[in-house]
Amino acid sequence: MDQPLEEEWRNFERYEKIRIRERRKRFWTIALAIFFFFGLCSIPVIRERSPKWQSLRAALELSLELEHMKTRAIQEKRPAILRFTEGAGFRVEFVADCASKSEPSLEKEGKWQDHEGALKVLSTEDLTHHSIALGADEFCFDPVYGLNGVKTRLVLVIAPVKDLAEGRMERASYVELEGESAKISVN
Fold first, then answer.
1. How far is the C-alpha of 171 from the C-alpha of 175, rounded, in Å?
2. Consecutive 10-residue averages of pLDDT for the chain (187 residues)
3. How many other C-beta atoms can be found within 10 angstroms of the C-beta atom of residue 150?
4. DSSP conformation letters of 109-160
5. Distance of CA 29 to the CA centre of its chain
6. Number of structural domains the chain divides into
7. Domain assignment present for 42
8. pTM for this model (two decimals)
9. For 74, which DSSP code?
10. Residue 96 falls within a domain, yes or no?
11. What is the CATH number of the domain that holds 155?
């Protein structure tokens, strides 16, 4: 009589192990399906927002370069100017003063991060076309007189090239320089 009861108990234990294994398998199948679903749903969002993220990353790099330029100008006790060149390049030069911008001596030349020409710093013509009043395509910092010697606010705009062709400015990033000390903020 004890034999059948013990046999039933062993069968119950086996089936319990099988049930636990099936529950675990069902849980991982459902979790994987949910993860896959949300992964597929996020692709359009990532594609839409990646140009804005790229322009923000470039604006942050540019703001660091501007901060280095300001520090170097203060150390040298001479005005420095940052100009943008073709192909995502820039030049930092020392000048006699910001107003004349004559006799530049090259301090540094480099490139800011650009993903295959996808980003552009807006030129003066682009800024007037998009009605950005405080925009500029170069930046001069004088350690004595401050930002450009005259203006108290300046904006450098980095925008995706595709958006410029379409006339959109939603995904552009702005490096704002404000006050005599040219306090930098990125938007």
1. 13
2. 67 84 96 96 92 88 89 88 79 82 70 70 78 79 73 80 80 85 85
3. 11
4. EEE---STT-EEE--HHHHHHTT-TTB-SEEEEETTTEETTS-SEEEEEEEE
5. 37
6. 1
7. no
8. 0.75
9. H
10. yes
11. 3.55.40.10
